[in-house]
Amino acid sequence: MFRKCVAGELELLTYGYSSGFCIDPIEKKPLFHFLPGIPVLSFGTVGCNLGCKFCQNWDLSRQTIKNADLVHAPPNRIARAAQIMGCVGVAFTYNDPVIFHELAIDTARECRALGLKTVAVTAGYVSPEPREEFYAWMDAANVDLKGFTEEFYKKYTDSSLQPVLETLEYIKKKTRTWLEITTLLIPGVNDSDQELRAMTEWIVKTLGRDVPLHLTAFYPAYKMKDHPYMPPERVIHARKIALESGLRYVYTGNIEDPHGQNTYCHACGKELITRNGFDITGWNLKDAGNCNFCGAVCPGVLGSRHGMWGSKRLQIQLRPDKDFLPFAVE
């Protein structure tokens, strides 16, 4: 239970608290077309509104408030810490921000007042009214499209596909929020050619071919620890299907695949952004994201330069007597 009724009003029990902070590369969210190379302050709380059997953050998503190790973190101090540490803004991640809706929105308000951005990493499983309020404050979002059948969502996530599809369409057509999508591919579960083709064709038809899609490889976790790892060649094959469906920007994750990490011009095919993991090693964009070779526009929130944060991670502690206390994470 993460809310209680107080004087007829629902009160968020995790408001002003966090399970931890870390400065990450924006690419880790993953966002590849939103201010590349810039650091973002990531935080979450505990709990989730889904029950994914393959959850990779199950230690937080399935945690209770009673047993959680939470630190006091009011919205203004979170935004201020991001500003002091030179971050582009704050990412709501680790657990789904719809669980801490009020805290996320109030933090976004504080960020906007300081000229900072806010990013949501979410499963997109949310009702229309809070969806509208939430995305009015989000500058970018990566939505997990976990599969493409109702059967999969019911069996493996204890939720439903249709609200996620509605969220994706709402973000793309009704907001200014930059959208990218991630699908974790689980061998023999959601990775059939038929399902991949149906999913990617739906994205092209409904959202457009310029929405970046990240296809990441499953590794055993939570209630699926006995399930096999996703073979890298299968992820690369899935990327090929997505490109054949008409998507222009398809990336692979959790595997060694340099070609699947780079951004290519949709018009001339030249390499626009070269990546080595989360490090940017090549940049061929100018102005507001135009190809250096042919001038075609690469969609996203881009520019003529990129950040230099690279793959570094830096944990931050917020303490009552100080704004923050940074220490490195190997």
Which terms summarize this structure?
330 residues; TIM Barrel; ten-stranded mixed β-sheet; three-stranded antiparallel β-sheet; 19 strands; 26% strand
What report would you give on this structure?
- By secondary structure, this protein is an alpha/beta fold.
- The chain has a single domain, classed as Aldolase class I (TIM Barrel, Alpha-Beta Barrel), CATH 3.20.20.
- It has helices spanning 58-61, 75-84, 101-113, 128-135, 150-157, 161-174, 193-207, 232-245, and strands at residues 3-6, 9-12, 17-18, 20-25, 39-44, 71-72, 89-92, 117-122, 140-144, 178-185, 213-217, 250-253, 263-264, 271-276, 279-283, 285-286, 290-291, 314-319, 322-328.
- The strands form 5 sheets. A 10-stranded mixed beta sheet has the order 12-11-10-9-8-7-5-4-18-19. Strands 13-14-15 form a 3-stranded antiparallel beta sheet, with no helix packed on it. The chain has a two-stranded antiparallel sheet with strand order 1-2.
- Strand 7, helix 3 (101-113) and strand 8 (117-122) form a beta-alpha-beta unit.
- The longest helix has 15 residues, at 193-207.
